User: Fold these one by one.
Assistant:
Number 1:
Amino acid sequence: MNILIADDDPDMLRILTLYFQKEGFTVYTALDGEEALNICFAHKIDLAVLDWMMPRVSGIRVCGEIKKRHAAKVLMLTAKSGSEDEWNALLTGADDYVRKPFEPKILLLRAKKLIRAERDIYIGGLRVDMEGGKIFRGETDLGAANKEFLLLKCLLEHKGKILSRETLLDHVWGFDYDGEERTVDTHIRRLRERIGGGLIKTHRGMGYSLEEPREPRELQEPQEPTRELAGRKEQEKGHGVHE
């Protein structure tokens, strides 16, 4: 996975880069907000770790621009201590917020949880091998093509959120892809044929989302009768209601 770390402190960049590279991440670094945006537009970034106070373009503005165009997760770093600042960051689209000073290993753990960097993810009877790029049902490899797997991976990483065709194209095909947006529909159809149609939802005019499968109605616990209904039944008994 690709990580962008943007901070105007070179020592901080060096330390965090070592931690993330040790865990197998590809790391891009930036010393200011303008450079961070250029990297985001040139590469497929899965997670951006942004310092709030950066020269040229602030981290919070970079966060906003990323969220307008891309599906990358954003983790904000800041020395600010006010709850209002945290609220503003989350409102802008940040997925998490870490105050300085912090332990790099704690930041790494929170980053990994944020992008769900576990090897296997289980959903709807499927096992998705995030590192191996394969989708299984039981022990059977469903034989998903690379683009099909990447589409499912992207939807999994943003489960419950609607992703537009443009966002999916950027994330799966890359920013320099100049083909038709409808190729997303074709690959989604093929992916549904492999995994079943219940997980991926179509939102007309908006895009696609991945949703947790709901428990079948017959397996759900029966609900208690409401107080109003119970009272009406007692009243009927008292009046001797007959068929």
Note: Residues 215-234, 239-243 have pLDDT under 50 and may be disordered.
Number 2:
Amino acid sequence: MITSVIESIHEIPAAEWEHLARPAGLYLSHRWLAGEEEDPTATCAYALVGTSKAP
């Protein structure tokens, strides 16, 4: 398993993210997280675990 950390949801293609996160609902959607990142007080990081490196 490969683990990587990214600082923006924009580093992951929306279609790939939605394919995996859609069952989790609105608050984990690519669009929602991208909107949250626009808040100047927000700090974001996403831990990705998979069989290949993040893009």
Note: The helical segments are 14-21, 30-37.
Number 3:
Amino acid sequence: MTATSPRPTVAVIPGASISRALLRGAAGSAPPAVALVLGIWGNWAPSAWTDEIVTIDVARRSWPQLMELLGRVDAVHGLHYVLMWLVGQLNGGLNEFTARVPSAVAVAVAAAGLGWLGRLLGGPRLGLYAGLLLAVLPTASRYAQEARSFAFVMAVAVLATGVLVKVLSSRAEGWWPAGYAVLIALLGWFNLLGLLLVGAHAVTVILWRPGRRVVVRLLLALTAGLTAVVPLLILAAAQSSAVGDAAPVTAGTPFNYFTWLLTPGQGTLPTALKLLLTCTALAALALLAVRRHKAPSLALAVGVPWLAVPPLLLMAVSLGHPLFAYRYLLFCLPALALLLALAATVVPPYQQLLLVHLTVVPLYASHQAIRQEDSRQWDTHAVIRTLRIHDAPGDAVLFSGARCGLIATAFKEAFTARPDLGTDPNRRHTRHPRPPARHPGPPATAPDPHPPRLAHHLQPSLHQRPPGRHPHRHNPETGPCPGRVPSGFPPQCAWGEHHA
């Protein structure tokens, strides 16, 4: 008999295994939980603005009415409208709260997806940091509380990027290429400009340098996904007249884009705090650039093109036809969170603590700002509240600004029994027509036996209002919205300010 040496044994440290298991669990569950809580917290406070009012109105229509609408206009938002219509059917209707909850769920999915992507690229710690950073960024919460499609675009973009990494790392085995095709199609159907992500993915593939077989399968998957979007492209081209112009691209656009990713505070965040948050993020990225040799190269190959390529492509397109709007690039926000998380993993612990402490106050202030009633372009709550407080029997409403009548469509209960002078022929021509008054004063002839009651012209701001401006104040550049016209007064008495 021959003696054999015993097999070497590997010592297992129970505490280390438990720590790794807890870290993996936290990386998977904490980011979506935090994102969902922050997305729902206070989402009932901000007033619904134009686009959200459109969503609520469309979701309340019948299915034939919805299909007829999408055949004429807004086909590019069709998938989101159908989804919101289904939510309305399941919920028995939509209001501001229920219309915004699906966006909060989408941001939670994005945070979970980014945690998964971080684990693929750099392990559980990178996944946890990246997912949590996305969850706590104010811009993510801002669009978690908006009844539009941008949060869904961000969620699909994160999942598509994660599947791309799986395709590249698994040598295109299994069903991952088919999943990539489906997600690219969903990305385009939620928002055509979301397909700018494909440019970032192309750069990632070039930097990754996979084999020819992987590239071929990726190209086939991409072709299938883009082909599925062609019908929407054709329909959108026929409806292009419905697209409004955006602001032109300037030299300050790249910096403004970066600050917007950090905080979209609608002018309510003090400049000093915004600069502090922006400079801290830039410092973190600078530290990452200095210590890039310590970071996983694949994570850089994913995050840097994702953050930079889509805005550069959109700015280039906008030089010919202005299309640049920051909200179209919300799907790049996870890239910034990924890179900031990557920076946190390569710097010493004391620098991590310093970066965190520098951002606490700006982040808190921005989260508070985006949950204010007047933090959106329209302050519809102020309009409805003033109508209820100052209403009297026989009063009418005059909508004299662009798209202002949408308020009465989405909030019908607030405008019940208040005729619209702009559409009601019986009330449009009053008994005492006279030129509009530029200064408030009693009408020359008032059939009302109690003439001291004057009009209250209400203005849901159509611009980003600076702090301190009265929400009812009329801005002559944007035009008034609904004015409440007292009984017996001609519509010309609807002045631009509140007169008691």
Note: The two ends are 110 Å apart (CA to CA).
Number 4:
Amino acid sequence: MNPVVGRRGDAPTVNVAGVQWPFHKVAAVVVGIVAALMTLIVTQSGQATMWVTALAVLAVWWGTRLPAVAALAVRFRPSE
């Protein structure tokens, strides 16, 4: 069994309505809402808003998640 899979206790979490959410998810949702509102106000285009929001959410989600996953992988690497 891979010790990295399923280990959520080491990732930073945020309390949202009594539920612990991983920080990278909360950050992605907040950035997505802000990006959508700003793009919609500036361009008034649904298509542009969708693309900008998707890129912003993807960048934040993976940008904040990958360092945490890499740190877990290094910590739980089997000794040689």
Note: The longest strand covers residues 13-16.
